Amino acid sequence: MMIRKKKSSKAPGAPLWMVTFSDLFMLVLVFFILLFSMSQIDLVKFKAVAESFKETNILDYYPSAIPFDHPTDFTVETESTNNKEEDQTNPQESEQNLEELLHEVQKFLDENDLQDVVIANRTERGIVLVLEEKVLYETAEARILPTAYPFLDKVGTLLTKIPNLVKVEGHTDNRPISTEKFPSNWELSAARASSVIRYLVAEHELDSERFVAVGYGDTRPIVPNTSSENFQKNRRVEIVISDPQYEEKIN
Fold it and tell me: For residues 181 and 173, what is the distance between their CA atoms, to the nearest angstrom?
């Protein structure tokens, strides 16, 4: 009698490789869930920081909900911003100061009969004082004449009362110049503008950072260079006491 071998029955369930695969899949899933949760936290922080910057005044009294690595840096930046805001001049006050300055200059010109050689105007740029060459210099020179001191002293005194920036522009006619000091009209016009600034800063203790010297040479005539009278008008120095609102526009 033959003995039949019993067939071995396979264990029920999934194959063994499925266990490893499911573990790996679970790890990958957990990893991506972790990344997603971290990204959500960063987004919340970003929104909170953005909202805190919109309400700067609130931060002055209540601590931010988001911790900073260097809290002092934020404090310094906030104080710096506040100081800048305090330094800004009220537009109405600035306009009033310029009008008062223009009135004082025009009054000085009338009292000293300088209307023919010095012109004071209110333009978009600010107060523009146009001084002909004969008021300030000898021909082809950049040294200020003593006769110009009273007018420059008046301007310097007025500038001590306001913080406005001042641009001094030198201009010449189109006749060429070639000397040891001034090889061309560029050097002459720049030297003349600089000499005015040096005088104002030295004699009235004004902050030199308020001033800008520009030499235009013969590139910006106000009348055609066709006669001796026109040559004289084009040889000039312009002192521009800037309007802060105009400076903001061009910046």
Answer: 18
